[in-house]
Design goal:
The protein is of the alpha/beta class. It has helices at residues 7-17, 26-33, 37-43, 61-65, 70-73, 78-89, 106-111, 126-132, 157-163, 192-201; strands at residues 24-25, 51-54, 57-60, 97-100, 119-123, 138-142, 146-148, 153-155, 168-173, 177-179, 183-186, 202-208, 220-223, 230-232. It has a six-stranded parallel beta sheet, sandwiched between helices. A three-stranded antiparallel beta sheet has the order 1-3-2. It has a three-stranded antiparallel beta sheet with strand order 10-11-13, covered by helices on one side. Helix 7 (106-111) links the parallel strand 4 (97-100) and strand 5 (119-123). The radius of gyration is 20 Å and the shape is elongated. The two termini are 33 Å apart.
């Protein structure tokens, strides 16, 4: 890329670099534009150009302002979510106690748990619990508390105490954003405690996400990629 001359040209170049939700480290942006990090920070200082610099990363202001809605998410990327969830469900065996995280992806895993599977499902997610509750031969432990409709999940200190007494053989975790440097993220800070507690109690941990979540950064980090045994749904993976 030729060096853009002038503030307006640099901002337009950054908009193109951040198209489709791409998040770019400021050092990479400076190298790409052949300018300095200080110049980029100065260009974006007023926050009124549709591009933001947050924590050393450049992103679209729309990306920062996006809000999660479970009802909306349930209608997006459905084929990809179903595919990764089916891969994850194949790992469940009789006598497992599995944790299914909240969000729209793992409801597809719940739907792949067969009748009389002889497994126990632990979840804080209403949509997952509704599916599991209709299955014969599958036990359900719902981690209840305050209900958060935007994520369709519960949170409470009681739920965290319950998790401390449950031996989870396999934990399946969802994410709203996955960044190779900044980690695995979600929209809502109320989700973090339950996710972390479930990870601590899981003998094996799997990250289950459709490819669109990779390269995105959301407000709340709950894990690093190396904390998971397998990343199901990583772009380019078999």
């Amino acid at each position: 890329m030729a060096r853009p001359s002038g503030r307006a040209a640099r901002i337009e170049a950054l908009r193109k670099l951040c198209a489709s939700g791409t998040i770019l480290h400021i050092a990479e942006a400076a190298q790409e534009l052949k300018t300095s990090e200080i110049t980029i920070r100065r260009d974006l200082g007023d926050g009124e150009n549709g591009i933001l610099c947050l924590g050393g990363y450049i992103m679209s202001a729309n990306e920062k302002g996006e809000r999660y809605s479970l009802s909306h998410a349930q209608g997006t990327n459905t084929q990809a979510k179903a595919q990764v969830a089916k891969q994850a469900a194949a790992m469940v065996v009789p006598e497992d106690t599995i944790f299914l995280d909240c969000g729209s992806t793992l409801q597809y895993l719940a739907a792949n748990v067969p009748q009389n599977a002889n497994v126990t499902v632990v979840t804080q997610a209403m949509n997952v619990a509704e599916i599991i509750s209709r299955l014969e031969g599958v036990s359900l432990i719902l981690l209840a508390g305050i209900y958060h409709p935007e994520s369709g999940s519960f949170s409470s200190d009681t739920a965290l105490k319950m998790l401390q007494e449950i031996n989870v053989t396999k934990g399946f975790f969802s994410a709203a954003g996955i960044h190779e440097n900044e980690g695995v993220t979600c929209f809502h800070f109320h989700e973090v405690a339950a996710k972390r507690a479930a990870m601590a109690r899981s003998q094996r941990r799997f990250l289950v996400s459709d490819p669109s979540k990779w390269g995105r950064l959301r407000p709340a980090t709950f894990a690093q990629l190396n904390e998971f045994e397998t990343w199901i749904g990583k772009p380019g993976a078999d």
